[in-house]
């Protein structure tokens, strides 16, 4: 069994968790090396928090290599174990005592480039305190004109992240949908919408004092007035290792104190 390690060194600065993984792997007859794109691994072990997993999710989706998340962050909603559970976890990987959970990504296009989001794509104002004007279309049909701080297109995975804080619904990870949620809309009628994951969603930045596209919390590009960010479902999914017989709703209670 070959394990590729993807580590956020800010979260494991002295390498204790990496060393614990290596000891557990040696005990169970597995090998450990740094994850490299294009190299074969049976599993990716992500050491960090949810942000670390967000950075490696696209590679999992492309390669089909499942991710086991080890939480060295805060909430750790996407992670599966704490560092003290590594020995048991590697043993279960070796004996195939796990299930795989698929998490869909978004395909986000702008200026001919494609970006992939496990949580969300967000168009957000970047200057001052004034709202921006946006138009939202679904499958070529105008759905909404709105002034707001920003607009979120979210996967079911991302429904428990920024979309949730903006008033969006919690969506089960197996649902094949995209959630569309305004951020601080200047309108009483503006509500979150849910569309099919195969829908073509357009988020047009009409005017304002500046807006940018963010993918999973990271700035991608500053938008020009009139530019359109296109979003649809991606035909590949990141794979997550689940070791515990715990439902999505139990995880919500444990991690988010719902």
The H-and-E topology, N to C, reads as: EHEEHEHEEEEEEHEEEEEEH
Largest sheet properties: 6 strands, antiparallel
* Stretches with pLDDT under 50, minimum 5 residues: none
The SS-based structural class is alpha+beta
Number of strands: 16
Q: What Rg is obtained from the alpha carbons, in whole angstroms?
A: 19 Å
Helix count from the secondary structure assignment: 5
Mean of residue pLDDT?
A: 93
CA(first)-CA(last) distance: 38 Å
- Based on CA inertia axes, which overall geometry fits? elongated
Write up what this structure looks like:
- The chain is α+β, with helices and mostly antiparallel strands and 258 residues long.
- Helix content is 19%, strand content 42%.
- The strands form three sheets. It has a six-stranded antiparallel β-sheet. It has a six-stranded antiparallel β-sheet with strand order 12-11-10-7-14-15, with no helix packed on it.
Keywords:
258 residues, alpha+beta, six-stranded antiparallel β-sheet, 5 helices, elongated
Short description:
It contains five helices and 16 strands.
Helix and strand topology:
Elements: E1 2-7, H1 16-27, E2 31-34, E3 43-48, H2 50-63, E4 67-71, H3 86-94, E5 99-110, E6 113-117, E7 120-125, E8 132-138, E9 141-148, E10 150-154, H4 162-165, E11 177-183, E12 193-196, E13 201-207, E14 211-215, E15 218-223, E16 228-242, H5 248-256
Parallel strand pairs: 1-2, 1-3, 3-4
Antiparallel strand pairs: 5-6, 5-16, 7-10, 7-14, 8-9, 8-13, 10-11, 11-12, 13-16, 14-15
Helix pairs in contact: 1-3
């Amino acid at each position: 069994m070959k394990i590729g390690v993807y580590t956020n060194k800010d979260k494991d600065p002295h390498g204790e968790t990496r060393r614990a993984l290596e000891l557990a792997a040696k005990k169970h007859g597995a090998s450990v090396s740094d994850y490299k794109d294009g190299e074969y691994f049976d599993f990716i072990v992500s050491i960090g928090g949810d942000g670390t997993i967000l950075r490696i999710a696209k590679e999992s989706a492309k390669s089909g290599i499942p991710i086991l998340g080890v939480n060295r962050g805060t909430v750790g909603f996407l992670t599966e174990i704490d560092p003290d559970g590594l020995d048991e976890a590697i043993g279960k990987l070796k004996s195939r005592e796990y299930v795989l959970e698929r998490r869909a990504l978004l395909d986000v296009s702008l200026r001919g480039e494609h970006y992939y989001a496990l949580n969300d794509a967000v168009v957000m104002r970047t200057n001052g305190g004034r709202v921006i004007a946006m138009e939202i279309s679904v499958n070529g049909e105008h759905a909404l004109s709105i002034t707001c701080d920003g607009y979120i297109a979210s996967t079911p995975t991302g429904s428990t992240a920024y979309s949730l804080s903006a008033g969006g619904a919690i969506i089960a990870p197996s649902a094949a949908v995209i959630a569309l949620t305004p951020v601080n809309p200047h309108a009483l009628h503006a509500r979150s919408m849910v569309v099919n994951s195969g829908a073509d969603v357009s988020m047009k930045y009409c005017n304002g004092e500046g807006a940018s596209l963010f993918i999973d919390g990271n700035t991608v590009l500053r938008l020009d007035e009139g530019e359109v960010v296109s979003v649809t479902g991606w035909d590949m999914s990141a794979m997550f290792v689940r070791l515990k017989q715990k439902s999505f709703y139990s995880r919500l209670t444990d991690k988010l104190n719902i």
